[in-house]
Amino acid sequence: MASVIVRVTSTSARSPLARLVAIPLGLDLWELHPDHAVLQADEAQASRLEAMGYAVEQLRLSESYLTDFATESAVTGYHSAQTLEEDLRQLADDNPEIAELHEIGHSVEGRPILALRLGERRGSSRKVAFLGCHHAREWISVEVPFLLAEDLVANASADPVREWLQRGEIWVAPMVNPDGHEFTRTPGNRLWRKNRRRNRDGTVGVDLNRNYGYMWGTLDIDTSSHTPADETYVGPRAFSEPESRAVRDLVARQAFGGVLTYHSYSQLILYPWGYTDEPIVDETDHREMRDLAGDMQRLIAGVHGETYTAQQSSRLYPTAGDTTDWTYGEYDVPSFTVELRPASALEGGFILPAGQIQPCWEENRPAAHAFIGHVLEKPA
Amino acid sequence: MAGRGETWIARLTPASGRSVDDLLAARLGLDVWERHPDHLVVAATEGQLGEVERRHLAEVERLVTRSQYEARTDDGPGTTSSATSP
């Protein structure tokens, strides 16, 4: 039966649009607006909607939609673990005076976890770190830190980047969870979140962003779970996973002055704490992170007009054992989680079209620069 | 994900007298995608959603099945200029 893309409007009070989402017809709802919805349906479903009092306007056949838009370039806009390694290695090989590729550890399945060190000299006391892809399905969180690294290299001879690379070091690890990311590239597994640890009960995966060692395991709720099958399984103990240990050891060795980790989605700028609703007690630290998050929010909005809301992490939902609670709680450095595009599931959720990689990077560039400047230019 | 049957992307609106925080604390094994002041967007199996309904914890709106959502992959709704606000 042919599938069609249709615009649906309500024609009677007995069939409000808001009810559309609850109708058990198996509709594939793409957009829901105050005055209309866009969805994919087969002919029988479309006829049923009309019988229920909705106006159904056919926009196009699904087949022609896929032919037009599901192009190879759109699918291949994102890195795999392999292509990321190749591109990071190329950056380092082409720019040996400022870029150096490090294996900071290996995943459960033995894949290298890579970090690019950018800076003209070793041993600086001013260092900042960017991380990506703790969660496998959040593909955009690989691309933004990678594009940051590429952009810093490309602008290494121009201020402020030149001065940053003379003064300190910028470390970029775009894919903390390569096993999970590779798994999401296999059929039927695009929404996998955790790493690929085989748990004792036969389930698979630990949520790497619940496996860090500050207040680890202090919550047992759906967003920080002790049940291995759950999406937010915290693991059997803090730092049980080689991927989180790789980050732990890197942070311990380099003593970063600030850490920013990319996730998706929701368009948020989160700062500690995640494990409690209480704000950070140290008023100076609290003000520093709150104000910097607000600055980043304004800088992002200034590019394409997108709103990324700055807020304490626990206001999203409680999380114990996340990266930034640990980097702030253990090392007392400004720490942020940036939740990238889009804002909602209706706009794609975890599956962000490849065409949005570039604008997402563009709007996050000045915020990343502000964070680098804040950390590297901070008075000693 | 634990549970039975098809996995849905669903909107959960807490029942009267309950809050989103209550829902998060209910230990339902939900994969929480979005938290809003008055509702959650989650991925959950039909079994989990049925449990939410059976316990009268929240109103459940099944938005789209996981397989339908995944089938959209690239160039789904995000490419349309009209879909820019939550």
From TrEMBL, chain A:
Database matches in SUPFAM superfamilies: Zn-dependent exopeptidases (SSF53187)
Catalytic residue list: E339 (proton donor/acceptor)
Reported cofactor(s): Zn(2+)
CDD domains registered for this protein in UniProt: M14_CPT
InterPro entries assigned: CARBOXYPEPT_ZN_2 (IPR057247), Carboxypeptidase_T (IPR033810), Peptidase_M14 (IPR000834)
Top-level taxon in the UniProt lineage: Bacteria
Keywords of this entry: Hydrolase, Metal-binding, Metalloprotease, Protease, Zinc
A Pfam family annotated for this UniProt entry: Peptidase_M14
Family membership: Belongs to the peptidase M14 family.
Name of the protein: Peptidase M14 domain-containing protein
Species this protein is from: Pseudonocardia yuanmonensis
Automatic annotation (TrEMBL), chain B:
Superkingdom per UniProt: Bacteria
Ranges of Basic and acidic residues composition bias in the record: 66-75
Location of region: Disordered: 66-86
Protein name: Uncharacterized protein
Organism this protein belongs to: Pseudonocardia yuanmonensis
Source species taxonomy: Bacteria, Bacillati, Actinomycetota, Actinomycetes, Pseudonocardiales
